[in-house]
Fold each of these.
Amino acid sequence: GEFRNAEYEPKTEAASCQEEEGNATFVLAHTPQTKACIQILRLFFHITTSDPTLSEEMGKDGLHVILSRLVNCDLVLDEEEDMDSLFEIQELACEIGNINSSSFPMK
């Protein structure tokens, strides 16, 4: 069938969740998923700064929705390393969104 981004829901969480005495805690720092997310965002940043046409196409294809979700993610994390990882992801998402704001409306 035809691939549609709007119907795609990733099966892998960007954070691992651990149960501790009934409370869920999220671990972002040093996980393979977080490292991959940061690498992908850095690649998108490079593409956005290098190729305005491709950047516009990525925006039309729905990347701005993902960036917006990342920027608006509001997790309460226990560890400073985890907060630093979340802030790094959000900072990259903001930088990508700010480069070509017409392609990436951050609502």
Amino acid sequence: PSFKSRNGSPLGRFTPTEVECDTSVGLVLQSFPSNVDPILRKRMYLEDSKLVSDDIIVVNSEIYVENQRFVVSSINDGGCGVTCLTLNQDYRGTRISGMK
């Protein structure tokens, strides 16, 4: 959209919807959607460890991957790594994906 201004000050404002914005925070590096092990089906590994170390993603965070809603049940469960998330339900999607 275009905006009008007077002397550098905006005239009016525009508020985009969530759909219009890219709210991605990271990428899923690896997941195991079709693994026979039920524990691995609930795990995914993030590409960027700063999402965890900077407390952007913490236990009980809601994340959306491929339009599926998940809650982070634990991080580094059983020593799987600082980028390893255990979700509240099986992940069913592609092995590598974007995350919101």
Amino acid sequence: DEMLAQVASIGASASVAVETSWRPPPEETLWALARSDPSSFVKMLVDLDEHLAKAGKAYQGLVLHDYEGYFKAMYGVLATDYPAAEVTELFSR
């Protein structure tokens, strides 16, 4: 909230990154939550987005960092481990 207030005070905007990689120390990433309880992780993202949106134009949305960690947390494998046909099927729905 404080960061977005400061951003708004100078007429700028910002996105908020959510770390999902398994590589950083546990206190710097939401990897464990995403991997162990994907539903709670997604609900937390929705709640966080709704809360931060109250900052108005200063808030430009959430950014998941990184896609590789997010994919591994949600599906249990790296995206590059999926056969191309299965990845195409996932995104064609």
